[in-house]
């Protein structure tokens, strides 16, 4: 007779593949099917709750099939289902029938970021006025607040996203390219804003290890349409940056 | 200041969509029960609204992911989250399930059946003890809805739960709907089961609706929490609630979630049943 752990492994094998659930000591096939369906269906519903716009774009049936396949190969590691589906956009990228619809995974990534941001820890945003008052702003080491995410979209989905948010019929995506978005929760509300690639590069440099003055020394690239100062202004206006660990007041003489 | 439960309190589950109405006066129910894992985010509006709810209602924290019925010890990270939530909310009740859901690092989002053996009893008792030690308080353990009869069982479920209570000092969350479902699906004698449970340990009743899967052979009752409580369950509840008048009652409704008014009407039915007052059935 095997141990409880061994029996549990055989039970899970039967959950993953009905053909393996034939040992009598696992229980009756119809009953096992209830557990199997509960596990699968609850994860499909968790994904449908997390990704309503993705579901709208794919249609209910295709979404359920894709979500079921994802659930089978990617059981959650965490009972907090609010965090389930971190890899769902990458999974959709790998589905051959969606090869011509990659903007769907852009929308999926925006939805995931919105959910992550809505559950992230609270932390005050650095105000532009407080930064301006600091005696050595370029020496400050800044980092994004926990309730922010940067999402790199591969299509211009701004109009599409707006339509989905408004409950309207989806519109085709705009041109392919490099379309970064910042997703930020501030005062209890989550905002999603397309930003310039240049702003994205400054955001990536402000990672809590680099002084602001050094981070602002970004090489311009072809197509850049903003200055470092403007990009910093965007990050401050959106509330992306946190107050430095050492409070600004303490640095003030 | 944590709010305490009055004897015989009747509550419903907490859903995001009902929060505004629940915060309005007068309070429609005596307490609210929340699924612990839904409130284990680091921050954000959901948790802010939870604090408003906690200031207005006594709470019951009902965990669904601790996997007490498995061979593995409770995940220390997840246990830490539960301890933090319980310390934050100071709920009137904390409960979990006689079930498992985690194995080898993966989580299976259901309440899977526990073989009722001496080995399982020792492991579940160890796991309950770990959680109670971490929480510094008594945990209520809920009886499961079962869909398979395990031939390896060497103990009756009621005896298993009674021994778990004796070994750990835990209490029981008696889900009468679960007991009814399991009795039907496993061919178990419901009355004998209820009579064999240690009634002194019951710290909360759960009631819920279920559905019937007629495609299964024989048909199975499915614990979907998707409708009103059935008459057979009300009948058992009326008797048990009068035997244990101080025990609070929680009406679950987790799928096809109704309006708050409809859910509160089901809670009022519970009050009427425990008082022995006829109460007409309410439509969906």
What does this 3D model show about the protein?
The complex is a heterodimer of chains A (253) and B (284). With 253 residues, chain A is mostly helical. Chain A has two domains: 1-101, no CATH class; 122-253, Outer Surface Protein A, domain 3 (Alpha-Beta Complex), CATH 3.90.930. Chain A contains twelve helices and three strands, in the order H-H-H-H-H-H-H-E-H-E-E-H-H-H-H. A three-stranded antiparallel sheet of chain A has the order 1-2-3, sandwiched between helices. The relative contact order of chain A is 0.11. In chain B, the strands form three sheets. Chain B has an eight-stranded parallel beta barrel with strand order 1-2-3-4-7-8-9-12. A two-stranded antiparallel ribbon of chain B has the order 5-6. Chain B has a two-stranded antiparallel ribbon with strand order 10-11. The longest helix of chain B has 18 residues, at 118-135. In chain B, helix 4 (118-135) crosses helix 5 (157-168) and helix 8 (231-243) crosses helix 9 (260-275). Chain B has helices at 19-23, 45-56, 76-89, 118-135, 157-168, 176-186, 190-196, 231-243, 260-275; strands at residues 10-13, 31-35, 59-62, 93-97, 100-103, 106-112, 140-142, 171-175, 202-207, 211-213, 220-222, 249-251. Chain B is of the alpha/beta class. Chain B has a single domain (10-275), classed as Divalent-metal-dependent TIM barrel enzymes (TIM Barrel).
- At CATH level 3, the topology of the largest domain in chain A is Outer Surface Protein A, domain 3
* CA(first)-CA(last) distance of chain A: 74 Å
Trace the largest sheet of chain B across and list its strands: 1-2-3-4-7-8-9-12
What is the typical, i.e. mean, pLDDT of chain A?
91
Keywords:
heterodimer; A: 253 residues; mainly alpha; Outer Surface Protein A, domain 3; 2 domains; three-stranded antiparallel sheet; 48% helix; 10% strand; B: 284 residues; alpha/beta; TIM Barrel; eight-stranded parallel β-barrel; two-stranded antiparallel sheet; 9 helices; 12 strands; globular
